[in-house]
Design a protein that fits this description.
Blueprint: H1 22-25, H2 29-56, H3 61-69, H4 88-99, H5 103-124, H6 130-150, E1 154-155, E2 176-180, E3 183-193, E4 201-209, E5 221-226, E6 232-235, E7 249-259, E8 263-265, H7 269-276, H8 285-303, H9 319-344, H10 352-380, H11 391-399, H12 409-421
Parallel strand pairs: 1-4, 2-4
Antiparallel strand pairs: 2-3, 3-7, 4-5, 5-8, 6-7
Helix pairs in contact: 2-4, 4-5, 4-8, 5-6, 5-8, 8-9, 8-10, 8-11, 9-10, 10-11, 10-12
């Protein structure tokens, strides 16, 4: 919808060149079509709204209406259940395109979509007893109907501030579910909970209270808590450096009752997924690859004098500017090539080399996006720091990537070093 109330025809919008050229990267028609849709939505609607979401630290509600209108809330829900049934790579490349225009939308869309992805295609690749699988499929169908039929949003808050290495083997979740008649009673809190106050359901990781076994993330449960359930409270302020539109406030759960069908994944399945389907954790990275592309695109246009509010294109004649743009181009191409290879290899039980490459791709994108944005600011010069231009927002948003759990930049480096030097099963000297 335009500001004057007229309808915006996405088919008439001139979009940017694809982040991944379909021919060069071997995308199929479905992938290319989804990527093109994301660019049309992004350039036609999302980009114009992004500054306000950032300035006001406000959730991108209007963008989600557009995502719902085009069926993208169910992108990873199986086709037989009303969704698009899209695979991991197609989802990731589409998310990267959205990230070019509104990083907060892409990042929060990931939290929602991963609820469908983890309970769907990933769960189907994992081991479950036949009765558990039948029960799981019945339960997830209930959640899928909410998304497809009602436009329900699912958040995915699991941060609690403890030590986490991305393998689900560290400190047990302090948020717990206790068995009660007809369901579970939830107590705990989640921090940096994206979509806080905007989601209809919070998909939380928690341990089981009263279990005979010692607490362990091996037994973690994944439970959907209705946002309007009694005992759910969103607290605290939200005024961060970047990713302000994610509205990732703290959520407190106090004696919250949920029924048995609220269980999104059976006990222990999340641990199995985290160890056997580890590429699930690089689904945050598409957003940051999109930011990197946006920073490069802005720099080229700025130096060419194509950005409104700039004067002339004399800057591009400078050899110093040309060398900087060349360096940015090389960095971006390196990021895209490694990342695309990693998401193309996503599958259950990846090889050791594929696992290491996924960690390397995550680190490269999460750190590289900020490096590229920083170089873009230096190259464009002082005026590009003004909030009337989006580049300073790209810089702030990109800085958030390296600290996002579970695969933070530090975690990636630590695991890459260790797992390169030790074969599976070897102990420290």
């Amino acid at each position: 919808m335009n500001a004057d109330g007229t309808t915006l025809d996405l088919d008439t919008i001139d979009t940017d060149a694809p982040l991944f050229d379909p021919s060069a990267f071997g995308l199929d028609n479905e992938e290319a079509g989804l990527n093109a849709l994301a660019r049309r939505l992004g350039s036609g609607r999302f980009a114009a709204r992004a500054a306000a979401y950032d300035r006001e630290a406000r959730f991108p509600t209007e963008n989600y209406a557009d995502l719902a209108e085009h069926g993208l809330l169910g992108i990873c829900i199986p086709k037989e259940q009303g969704g698009m049934g899209i695979g991991f790579r197609a989802y990731c490349t589409t998310a990267a395109e959205i990230g070019r225009y509104c990083a907060a939308t892409a990042l929060t869309w990931n939290m929602h979509t991963c609820t469908c992805l983890w309970t769907g295609a990933l769960a189907d690749d994992l081991d479950l007893a036949s009765d558990e699988r039948a029960q799981h499929r019945r339960r997830r169908a209930l959640h899928y109907r909410r998304v497809v039929g009602e436009g329900a949003l699912y958040a995915q808050p699991f941060s609690e501030g403890g030590v986490y290495d991305g393998t689900a083997r560290m400190t047990p979740f302090s948020t717990v579910a206790q068995r009660v008649a007809g369901g579970w009673r939830i107590n705990g809190r989640k921090i940096f909970a994206s979509l806080a106050g905007a989601a209809d359901y919070y998909g939380i990781m928690c341990g089981e209270a009263g279990s005979a076994e010692p607490p362990s993330r091996r037994d973690a449960m994944y439970v959907a808590v209705p946002a309007k359930a009694e005992g759910v409270k969103v607290v605290g302020d939200w005024d961060p450096l970047g990713m302000r539109g994610t509205v990732s406030r703290t959520i407190v759960f106090k004696d919250v009752f949920v029924d048995d069908d609220a269980v999104l994944m059976p006990r222990g399945l999340y641990f199995q997924a985290s160890t056997r389907w580890p590429h699930m954790f690089i689904s945050l990275s598409p957003t940051y690859l999109g930011i990197a592309q946006a920073a490069f695109d802005f720099t080229v246009r700025y130096l060419r004098g194509e950005i409104a509010g700039t004067s002339g294109d004399k800057r591009r004649r400078s050899p110093t500017k040309q060398l900087a743009v060349a360096e940015m181009f090389i960095t971006l191409q390196q990021m895209k090539a490694l990342w695309f290879q990693a998401v193309s290899e996503a599958r259950v039980d990846p090889t050791r080399e594929q696992m290491l490459r996924a960690l390397a791709a995550q680190f490269t994108v999460m750190e590289g996006a900020n490096d590229l944005a920083q170089l873009a600011l230096r190259t464009c010069g002082g005026r590009s720091l003004l909030k009337s231009f989006p580049l300073e927002r790209f810089y702030r948003d990109s800085r958030c990537g390296s600290v996002m759990i579970p695969w933070t930049a530090e975690t990636c480096l630590e695991r890459l070093g260790r797992e390169s030097l030790y074969e599976p099963g070897e102990e420290d000297d």
